[in-house]
Amino acid sequence: ILGRQMRACSANRDAARLCGINAKNVVTFSFMLSAAIGALGGCIVCPITYVQYDSGTQLAIKGFTVAILGGLYLSPEAAAAALARARLFENFAASAATATLAAAGHALEDHVYIVDPMGEWMMRAPADPDPARLKRDLDRLLRASAGWDRPGR
């Protein structure tokens, strides 16, 4: 029965009030229900997407851009503006992604890094190193680091 009351209030609040429905309580309940659904959705999505306090800013900017270009009403112009904006930014994102790629062999994933307990970068090796060469390099590194605590080294 509450759903019918909500529909009646959304269609014509005065007519619903004349039928004995407390429109103020129904509107308050609908806002509380929407807030609870939004909170539940946030609790479900937050651990998956690493939501931050300002993560909706980009979506808001996109929405306002489409609203300004196409108008505030549902119309073919608004749909065309949304599609044009999506196509424009899709092309821009694709070109920006290819322009910022690291050269082959220079990406972080292309190497194995040896780091000391203090966080200092000690050595870099290819992602698929030759085990004999890596062992030899590690032996040299450990021998050299054994004398680093002496003065003058």
Instruction: Note the run of SSEs as H and E.
Output: HHHHHEEH
Q: Report the helical percentage.
A: 55-70%
What's the number of extended β-strand segments?
A: 2
User: How far apart are the termini?
Assistant: 84 Å
Instruction: Output mean pLDDT.
Output: 77
What gross morphology would you assign? elongated
Largest sheet: 2 strands, antiparallel
Structural class: mainly alpha
Beta-sheet strand percentage? Answer: 5-15%
State the strand order across the main sheet.
1-2
List the uncertain runs.
none
Alpha-carbon Rg, integer? 30 Å
Q: What is the tally of helical segments? A: 6
What topology does this entry show?
Blueprint: H1 2-11, H2 13-18, H3 23-49, H4 57-70, H5 76-99, E1 111-115, E2 121-126, H6 131-146
Antiparallel strand pairs: 1-2
Helix pairs in contact: 1-3, 4-5
